[in-house]
Amino acid sequence: MTPEAQFILFGLNGLVWGLIIALIALGLSLVFGLIEIINIAHGDLFMLGAVLAWYMIQWTGNFWVALAAAPLAVGLLGMLIERGVLRPIEHKPIITILATFGLSLIFQQSVLATFGGAPQRIEEPIGGLIPLVGTFYPVYRVFVAGCALVALAGLWLLLYKTRYGMWMRAVRQDREMAVALGIASDQVYMLTFGLGAALAALGGVLAAPVTSLEFQMGLDVLPTAFIVVIIGGLGSLQGTLVAAVLLGVLEGLANVFVTPTTARIFSLLFMAVVLLVRPQGIFGKRP
């Protein structure tokens, strides 16, 4: 493989992974921007999406059923978490962090007890390779990028072209006024947390055929998701998307020259530089 082909290959891999991280980080940003809850268990919702997809494929033999059903199931679980666990303590930041950390441990140990500790794999549902500048690129990864873009476009339409999106933005801007106008803020909170969980699970299902599945896989993506949210600006959806793509491509290209661990150090340095220049993040608002 020529150096140019290797450079393009790693850059595309970084772009695809950046779009997956965007799905995860946007769910995290949605929840923080609206409910102001730092969800430590968010990476485990990504893991649950991948593991549920594995089980559904074992039962049905159909990846597409898993792609549709696993995010829905995790989204429903997210609504139950918001309703039953977080709502009574939503105005107590330290307690919500402890509660979501406890949920993270529960999810991990439950999956370990049922799924086991040995890594598993899911076969790519779409085979084939695309010729690319002296090398070949898997068709499935192109599908992942397209699917992520469609999901992100759907999220934008939901937020800015639907009544629910208007309610969500109104509650985020001024909850008391929104309630006075008849918007059910508790319902908006529950649906938003479920939407964030479903986005994380969708990222897990899409990532499952290109990575190994195990009960702690959420721990690997959670720091990256937090870095993306911080760089983009807390609560800024467009900032989260831009930061995820930039970070994914940066780490992908860095992997050409250094180890993945060193590439992650570059990401942390990039975050430090951004926060030195703009403490509120790329698209965050000044306090």
Architecture overview:
- By secondary structure, the protein is an all-alpha fold.
- It has one domain (3-277): ABC transporter involved in vitamin B12 uptake, BtuC, CATH 1.10.3470.
- 75% of the residues lie in helices and 3% in strands.
How do the helices and strands follow one another from N- to C-terminus? HHHHEEHHHHHHH
Our count of helices gives: 11
Average pLDDT confidence is 88
Strand order of the largest sheet: 1-2
Q: Indicate how many domains the architecture comprises.
A: 1
Q: What is the CATH class?
A: Mainly Alpha
Helix content: over 70%
- What does the largest sheet look like? 2 strands, antiparallel
Which topology does CATH recognise?
A: ABC transporter involved in vitamin B12 uptake, BtuC
Query: Unreliable runs, pLDDT <50, ≥5 residues?
Result: none
Dominant shape: globular
The amount of beta strand, in percent, is under 5%
Helix/strand-derived category reads mainly alpha
Tell me the radius of gyration. 19 Å
Distance between the termini: 50 Å
Judging by the overall fold, what is the CATH architecture? Orthogonal Bundle
Per DSSP E runs of 2 or more residues, the count of β-strands stands at: 2
